[in-house]
Amino acid sequence: MNEATVTVIGGGLAGTEAAWQIAESGLRVRLYEMRPRRMTPAHTTGHLAELVCSNSLGSDLIDRAPGLLKDELRKLGSLLMRCAAEAAVPAGGALAVDRDVFAQAVTQHIESHPRIEIVREEVTRIPSEPAVIATGPLTSDALAADIARLTGSEYLYFWDAIAPIVTLESIDFTRAFRASRFDRHSPPATQATPSETGAKADVDTQSETEGDYINCPLTREEYDAFVDALVSAETATLRDFELRDERFFEGCLPIEVLARRGRQALAFGPMRPIGIRDPRTGRRPYAVVQLRQDNLAGSLYNLVGFQTNLKFPEQERVLRLIPGLGNAEFERFGQIHRNTFINSPALLETTMRYRDGERQGYPALFFAGQIVGVEGYAGNIATGLVAGLNIARLLKGQPLLSLPPTTMIGALCHYVRHAEQKTFQPMKANFGILPPLEGELGRRPPRDKRTRAALHVARAQADLDAFLARLRSE
């Protein structure tokens, strides 16, 4: 059985993690990645595991859901978590990476593995041999059509967006300043401003390392002028076939879409000033734009939570209204693209195996990554790891693995299997998808959010340790 070769389609986060896990199990892998022969609208290189949105993998603090997810991935031997550690850049309590260093590290590990062959070709049909489909949000039209043929399921689309990147040297530090949120050494701010409620945003809170972010503070007048310019700015025209569905994933809303929901939406979302004090005034600004380091050299910074589909000249005009960015040099503009995912509750098991494969002639077909309906880099890695482990076990005649639903990885897999089919939407790691604590505590769980999180983490860690102990005893 060790002579079996598994096809993995897609060289992104999920595909590379799946390929690594399969190869480490002793099986051979043929990894297909169509780039650079055929590029996507969002990628710029041919490297494996290229990050096209944020450079942050989210919080790395164990009492946060994304941090718990990463802890579990490390315990399960994730290659990409190792590469992320090698490419890490300062980001407070978050794990952010130099995109190029990270992608190059993953590419080097995959290319040098003796049981992995990389094929730079587009795959247009689902192979009948054992395969993992991990083509991500930008699955090519031909393969997407073949997946639709197989599943008979309607495809769902939502928009995904990436934030602009500016050069460090172009930031005006007479207006901007370095600081992290909730610096324990700083006195509390005194100005009453919008608090942390409302829309979701890509903002890393509770950072404890001073200076990890560059902050551009805005007064009420500057904020109002920025919002006025933003909501009236011209957006880029998308291809006709993409305009049929204008739904957005809430965690990745373009700032212009968010701003149109209400005048204070940005101040309560990606521009919330909680935990920030302007050293020039000693007070909390009315709103703030945070920039996060994007490469190890520290020469590039991305605008946190500022995904946008404005036309490029409009981005320059509007974003230069932000104090400190008046002369900003843009290394990359924001843009928006279609994201595709299957109706996983109708199609997949918690093992990431395609449920109806044996009847349809695809007995060893698995899916992984964003195409299954998980969001966030670490979530994509997690499903790739699960799919990789399980297809290897299937081919070896071993029972497939479903991680305990009390773990964050197990909860994500449980969600994509058991969510409501008619209203299925992608999900990021969060404590809300874990089983409730009431039954195990024998009483109502504590009202305090931090205490509940600590109980979830303790249960998840204990259950994963027990799971791994059983696995090692096989």
Q: What is Rg?
A: 22 Å
Provide the low-confidence segments as ranges: 184-209, 239-246
The CATH topology label of the largest domain is FAD/NAD(P)-binding domain
Number of strands: 16
Proportion of beta-strand residues: 5-15%
- Give the CATH class of the largest domain: Alpha Beta
Strand order, largest beta sheet: 10-11-12-13-9-14
Percent range of helical residues: 25-40%
- What number of structural domains do the residues give? 2
CATH homologous group name of the largest domain? FAD/NAD(P)-binding domain
Structural class comes to: alpha/beta
Please provide the ordered H/E string of secondary-structure elements.
EHEEHHEEHEEHEEEEHHEEHEEHHEHHHH
Shape: globular
Topology, pairings included?
Elements: E1 5-9, H1 13-24, E2 28-32, E3 56-59, H2 65-75, H3 79-86, E4 88-89, E5 94-97, H4 99-112, E6 116-119, E7 131-133, H5 141-151, E8 156-162, E9 165-167, E10 177-178, E11 213-218, H6 220-232, H7 255-259, E12 287-293, E13 300-303, H8 312-319, E14 330-332, E15 335-341, H9 344-347, H10 357-360, E16 365-367, H11 377-395, H12 408-418, H13 438-441, H14 449-472
Parallel strand pairs: 1-2, 1-7, 2-6, 7-16
Antiparallel strand pairs: 3-5, 4-5, 8-15, 9-13, 9-14, 10-11, 11-12, 12-13
Helix pairs in contact: 1-11, 2-11, 3-4
